[in-house]
Amino acid sequence: MKIQNRLTLLFSFLFGIILFGFIVGVYQFYSNRSREDYFQRLHLKAALKVDLIDGETIAPDVLHAFYENIPPNYEPQVTIYGEDGRLIYRDKKNALPEKEYRDLLPRIHKSGPCCVWHEDKQIYGFAIEGYKTNYIVFATGKDVRGEEQLQTLKMVFAVAYLIVMLFIVLTVRLLTKQAFRPVARMTAQVKDITHSNQLNIRLDEGNRKDELAGLAITFNRMIAQLEKAFNAQKQFVYNISHELRTPLSAIITELELSQNKPNSKKEDYEAVVDLVLKDARRLAKLSNNLLDMAKTNYSPTEIAMHEIRLDELLIDVCHKIRKSSPGYTVQLIFDKTDIEDDRLISVKGNEYLLSVALGNLIDNGCKFSPDRTCEVHISYENQTIIIRVIDQGIGISEKDMESIFTPFFRGENQSFAEGNGIGLSLTHKIIQMHQGEIHVTSQPGETLFTVKLSNLR
After folding, report:
1. What would the pLDDT profile of 353-369 be if each residue is shown by its tens digit?
2. Domain closes at, from 278, 294, 310
3. How far apart are CA 6 and CA 12, in angstroms?
4. CA–CA dist 456, 358 (Å, integer)
5. Residue 447 CB neighbours (<10 A)
6. Going by DSSP bridges, is the β-strand pair 346-349/446-454 parallel, antiparallel, or unpaired?
7. Rounded CA gap, 257 and 238, in Å?
8. How far apart are CA 318 and CA 376, in angstroms?
9. Half-sphere exposure of residue 2, counting CA atoms within 13 Å on the CB side?
10. Where is pLDDT greater, at 257 or 326?
């Protein structure tokens, strides 16, 4: 069931209960007042007959004759007893047996006036003082007019209840429809986005103050992030295709040239093999970087984390770089040598990913320095390990500084050294995965990368 229909039923049900309770209360109040008024009339008419009999103004036979032609439904029947229980007067048309009244005499003597029902008639009994003696009087009657008024009131209330409930249902339906109109409009806009696959469409944010506006704002932010992610994915696929196409085209070209020259010298074949091997290594490096980048998209719970000493990790990384690139010179400098606790220089992380991140920074530092040399400083302050990688390269322009951590971005210095634009973005994601920070400052002749990671202290 739709929320709009559910709210309509809920509010109508609540209003219906409240209205029904109000009507029942009013009806009960009016019924009680009608009964009290009728008992008061019974009391007055019965007291009148007592006065006539007590003062001997009218004889009982005359009184019988006077009330004989009055319908019993409109004139109450009166029975009068003396204080000693002796029957003094009784209307001839009284349909109730005398025993019904005598059974009530002890109750009136003990508790005073009483009001009881006998079938559809009301009996009101009370004691009254006369001139000569005291009397116990019973007035019996049926409030025909009062019952007719109550029946009429029931019908009026029933019709009014139905009319008011119909009005309430229609009103609540109209209000909920009006209240959910922005939701319906928002749903239609979302369907348009879904069917058209156009992530540049945004929801109407209205007044930007109510809850629906907050939902629209949140949805628009999500769509903006999705649009950015899809655009990045498209650009990513384009960049990969470009990076793969260049070395593959070079390999195919070199092999075709060699195939067309069957009588080439051994030196020519060796040169072709060197070129093909160079391009193949470039493809292998690109493939490895892509695999490493895919790992950074894993959930932290899916990656093995354990305690790592960063100084030992840096020594191992520098050794591998020197071995793979004999022309590179890496100067590893420990700014603090008096390490009292291994935890000061240790982090919890993934050894392979951290070695990839730091290796990329050191490799770039050597690659972009004219003398293929860079400095690596490691120190700690309080609960933070600080690693600084310094090179003496041509520097990074202010324009490029904003995008150096973007995948496949190649700056103005791309002609200075080869690369695929993945290294720094991969490093940035790995450091973020380890809850760390990476900053860069650059000027002509020097570039400084600073990495901060929390230690285990």
Report:
1. 899 899 989 998 898 88
2. 294
3. 10
4. 19
5. 24
6. unpaired
7. 28
8. 9
9. 9
10. 326
Q: How far is CA 83 from the centre of its chain?
A: 79
Beta carbons within 10 angstroms of residue 143's beta carbon = 22
Distance of CA 392 to the CA centre of its chain: 54
- Rounded distance, CA 50 to CA 203, Å? 87
Reduce the DSSP state of residue 318 to 3 states and report it: helix
pLDDT, tens only, 90-129? 876 655 777 888 888 888 888 888 888 877 788 888 888 8
Q: Does one domain contain both 106 and 220?
A: no
Same domain for 155 and 249, yes or no, is no
Closest CA to 295 of 349, 243, 338: 349
> How far does the chain reach from its first CA to its final CA, in angstroms?
57
More confident residue, 409 or 89: 89
Q: What is the pTM of this model?
A: 0.51
Tell me what pLDDT residue 159 has: 94
pLDDT single digits (tens) 272-300:
777 778 778 777 766 776 676 666 666 66
- What secondary structure does DSSP assign to 116-150, as a single string? EEETTEEEEEEEEE-SSSEEEEEEEE--HHHHHHH
Confidence of residue 220 (pLDDT cuts 50, 70, 90): confident
Q: How far apart are CA 94 and CA 92, in angstroms?
A: 6
Structural domain span for residue 221? 211-294
The predicted model gives 138-142 an average pLDDT of: 85
- d(Cα 405, Cα 9) in Å, to the nearest integer? 56
Which residues sit opposite 439 in a β-bridge? 450
Length of the chain: 457
Question: Is residue 148 located within the same domain as residue 275?
Answer: no
**Confidence label for 76 from pLDDT (cuts 50, 70 and 90):** confident
Is the residue at 325 inside a domain? yes
pLDDT of residue 142: 82
The stretches of 180-309 forming alpha helices (DSSP H) are 181-196, 211-260, 266-296
Distances (CA, A) of 422 to 136, 288, 370: 112, 10, 22
DSSP output for 15-54: HHHHHHHHHHHHHHHHHHHHHHHHHHHHHHHHHHHHHHHH
Q: Write out pLDDT tens, residues 442-455.
A: 988 899 999 999 99
Q: How many domains does the chain have?
A: 3
Mean pLDDT, rounded, for 129-135: 80
Q: By the 8 A CB rule, do 79 and 42 touch?
A: no
SS3 417: coil
pLDDT for the residue 418: 60
Give yes or no: residues 63 and 150 share one domain.
yes
Q: Same structural domain for residues 55 and 149?
A: yes
